[in-house]
Amino acid sequence: MVQADNDTIFALSSGTLPAGVAVIRLSGPQAFDAALALAGELSADRKAGLRTIRSRNGLVIDQALVLAFAGPNSFTGEDCVEMHLHGSRAVVSAVHQELETIGLRLAEAGEFSRRAFENGKLDLVEVEGLADLIAAETEMQRRLAVEQGFGGQSALYMSWAERLTRARALIEAELDFADEDDVPGSVSDRVWTEVGDLYFEIEGHIASAKAGEIIRDGYKVVIAGPPNAGKSSLLNALAKRDVAIVTEIAGTTRDLLHVDIDMEGYLVRFFDTAGLRESEDRVEQEGVRRARIAIEQADLVLQLEEIDSDSKHTYDSVKAEVLRIGTKVDMHRTSTGYDLTISSETGDGLEELRSRILLKLKGTWSGSLVPNRQRHLQYLKEASHFIAEALNGQELDLRAESLRAAASSLGRITGRVDVEQLLDVIFSQFCIGK
């Protein structure tokens, strides 16, 4: 259902009820009038006031702290009100009913953030970062979301777009005002060296996308190997709880099982897979097929083999790093030929395994700005392609058009693709038209 942009909306903006406090947010042209009807006189802008919330019949619903934020100095850029109520379902339901009676409507999912974007309070990257911050479960996810949601990443993309705009301005100056004495005679050295530097900056940024994916979506570790190699036992030992069924019967694990573990702020997703072997059982065959797909998509494969067993598997076609692990070290005397030996029963080698995984993770992300969504990566690659076209082109006007397309691609990441003020740049730089 398409809603009117001038509707006044409301929603519960705090956590699941019941709770100690429930925050109801209002936004739109009727926000102050609605709050006045429920709470009486409002405190000064951005000042909290303790008010009695009453129904239209004068019945007391609750006492609440009420804050008013006059637009455009609010989250959405509109007049906003927050009511901090006691967090019972009955209180919130009663206030919702009163707001609907006044003529406000319940907000749709993400509608407050959408209004913030439409009113220029947030760009798309900041909106996505805010969503990631709310969903963050680990310290590194929080840090990445803060970099994105508080404007750092947007500032980087905007600075790149501004550099492209300036390069275009210089090119337009040479094309359109070549007879003017105060326009540089050739932009080749001045522009294309800087554009080339920018190209390598963007390419380096694109190359760091995998780090953003790992921090946001988790580091995928697949535990693979033949039946009875100890895969499910290792998963349970790492999770410190019984996630997978463990028996001595080969083929017990038929499907992918996974557990998410926070390892010093990093999200690590461990996957237990079906034992790799030939089987006539159709269910087990499907499990083996899914195991092979998981191995192909892994960031790290733990290749488990019971020490001294005859079952040997190679993973030559796998792109991920493979760590060869000998299991059940407590039951065997020899343990050569492995990267690491472990015992899920006694815990031998598990701490070293965790340390090795953490060492790989800590080298993944330095804390710098990285693209962490496929949408960002798509437009960054487009911008890089257009810049390469400009650098390798011959006709100056076509090269300028490629730079315009590159800046437009960068603008689509933040959602702010405005008409570039090339003439303003030219006039301010070169005093053309004196």
TrEMBL record:
GO terms for biological process: tRNA methylation; tRNA wobble uridine modification. Its cofactor is K(+). One of its GO terms (molecular function) is metal ion binding. K(+) binds at N228, T247, I249, T252. Mg(2+) binds at S232, T253. (6S)-5-formyl-5,6,7,8-tetrahydrofolate binds at R25, E82, K121, K434. One of its GO terms (cellular component) is cytoplasm. Keywords: Cytoplasm, GTP-binding, Hydrolase, Magnesium, Metal-binding, Nucleotide-binding, Potassium, tRNA processing. It comes from the Bacteria. It is an enzyme of class 3 (hydrolase). Binds 1 potassium ion per subunit. Belongs to the TRAFAC class TrmE-Era-EngA-EngB-Septin-like GTPase superfamily. TrmE GTPase family. Homodimer. Heterotetramer of two MnmE and two MnmG subunits. Exhibits a very high intrinsic GTPase hydrolysis rate. Involved in the addition of a carboxymethylaminomethyl (cmnm) group at the wobble position (U34) of certain tRNAs, forming tRNA-cmnm(5)s(2)U34. PANTHER family: TRNA MODIFICATION GTPASE GTPBP3, TRNA MODIFICATION GTPASE GTPBP3, MITOCHONDRIAL. This is tRNA modification GTPase MnmE.
